Amino acid sequence: MSESRLRLHFHFLSLLLLCCVSPSSFAVIKDLVACLPSQIQALTQFKSEFDSHSCNQTDYLNGVWCDYTTGEVTKLQLPSGCLTGVLRHNSSLFELHHLRYLDLSHNNFISSSLPSEFGNLNKLEVLFLSSNGFLGQVPSAFRNLTLLTKLDLSHNDLTGGFPLVQNLTKLKTLSLGDNHFDGQILQPISKLITLKYLYLSFLNISFPIDLRLFSSLKLLLRLDVSGNSISQASLSSHSDIPLNLEFLALSGCDIREFPNIFKILRNIKGIDLSQNRIKGKVPEWLGNLPRLSIMYSQTVFKGNFLFHHSRSTTC
Known about the structure:
Distance between the termini: 69 Å
Strand order of the largest sheet: 1-2-4-6-8-10-12-13-14-15-16
Helix content: 10-25%
Radius of gyration: 23 Å
Oligomer: single chain
């Protein structure tokens, strides 16, 4: 058998292995034919590194995209709960050097640290690793991911600092909530001036967050610092924070008075003040905010209050 026929034979067998010869899976084989044999081999090996019995095979295949010109895997989006096991440093995942989009969220990487080999995937633009049980620090090799526009490391057990700032000049969305980072991460984050969406809920740091730290983030539209203690001084109407904010979440921040900071946020559309202990009347000036349409609150305020829009929501 010629070398080219051998390669084609291996390619087809690899596809069958990935599909587990499930009739429903053959519908997506045509999309995987665009993948190089070496890429199919890496995908097959990656899947075999984990217990994936709970994984729907069709969904697994639907999560793979290859470039029709180069045959390289450019997008890998695995379904929630598909993989159980340890993500090792020598995983075949890190052979997919042309990945631009990688979503491994909501899997179960038991007792795994974040492998530094993620830094080898330097074409990544989107990286979602939330809710995986990752332990330890973010590797310094993540600095190599200079093309990232979205990064989600939330809902893990990560500790230490955040060493990525200098090179992440394209980052627009950052989610780090529900980890155990030290308080030093806030200052570096304030230098990510391209950010538009920042999610820092339940950081478990030992001191109040001063919202004025984010004054340099002029493009910021959405900020979630729920579940943290907030500096009272940074909630005043004289606070220097991004004025273009459209949504600010302060749920569960042990706030006792209605924050005057909203006076200066003329673009604000949504507010989350639920799970606080705010007493008193709703300030009259709140009804004058021209774009405010949604406020989440479990507090029963005194007095009357009307939004400019009819989409007001109270939880």
